[in-house]
Design goal:
Elements (H helix, E strand, L loop, with lengths): L1 H19 L1 H22 L3 E3 L2 E3 L5 H24 L6 H22 L15 H19 L3 H21 L9 H18 L3 H26 L9 H19 L3 H4 L1 H21 L14 H7 L6 H17 L4 H28 L2
Antiparallel strand pairs: 1-2
Helix pairs in contact: 1-2, 3-14, 4-5, 4-8, 4-14, 5-8, 6-7, 7-8, 9-11, 11-13, 11-14
Length: about 350
Amino acid sequence: MRWRYVAVAVAVIFIILVALFPHALYDNFLWKYIIGPVVADAAGKPVQHNGVYAYEGYTPVSEVIYGILMVLFIYLTYLFFERNGIVVDLRFLLLSIPFMLYGSMARVMEDAGIFSRPLSYFFISPFIYVQIGILFVFSLLYGIRFRGKRAFMLLMLAAIVIYSLLYIFLLSSPYALHPAIFVILSLIALWIYGKMEDGYLSSMFSIGFLCFSSSLLSLILFAIKGANLFPAILITPLLAALVAMLLYFLGIRFNFSLLRNRINFTLIFGHMLDAITTYFAVVNPFKWKINYGEKHPLPDFLMKSFYGVGYPVLKFLVILGVIYVVDDLKKNLKNTIKFFILFLGLSPGMRDVLRILLGV
């Protein structure tokens, strides 16, 4: 309870300081490192506010800010799980994957221009992570507070109304999903919820399915009508799976519990997918007809050095090190951290694969 008051006090003080010193705290901090890069990403060019320019991508300062916020959010999520009796295990992680894939697909939809401004801002990091976090926590809270198919049906009706309003007023792209199709997907989500009857897991998976399936169909429509497909990139999920499976079987062969743990298997796959796909896209060892860059400073440095293999090798070692370090923690805390680690690997990795596959 004390931490809640401390957090509110810090937020109020920061707002007051921003009001008192707008150029120093808003223009040269919030705008330059947080808000401006999102606007620049949506505009596809540098933008300026009160003489302060912001550029697409990340800086060491913004990386530190996001890192601190991520650690704080992980801890708050852990407290939320503990307070509500949510057990984070392999089943929980697997049923949460639709939310992770939704993040990947929604980000690619923004890359493809399916969303126009200002809606597009909500599908650019870090705001897309905020959006997914809100939807994810809401799906769990709904499952904890409400039970029964009738209550979930009312939620689906509300989702249909909200999506229909977005479609009418903000979604102008020809690749946007028609509300009639969204209704069908909502009915399928309602059917899934009724079949599972498993509390917060039912609502989490059903809402995640609705987000995932609607974005998937939009991307399929884009692939049919407007994409420049590049299927060769599908080699990267195969290579990532090969690395993860090799370590898994080595863990079984030599009785190494960390490597034969199935949750750890998903983490290794997710981060190897991100690392290998980024390597193929940026370093481009096969000289494919693609042209992609890296927005994060450290990966960009590593892929411009050591023949480009520094990034996937370092990421491989880091993910193994993190798994080793957190494995002695309490089970729910350990698995909560692993849940976020999986999200931070699988979601951007799938985004990279889909973006290259669709040529956007």
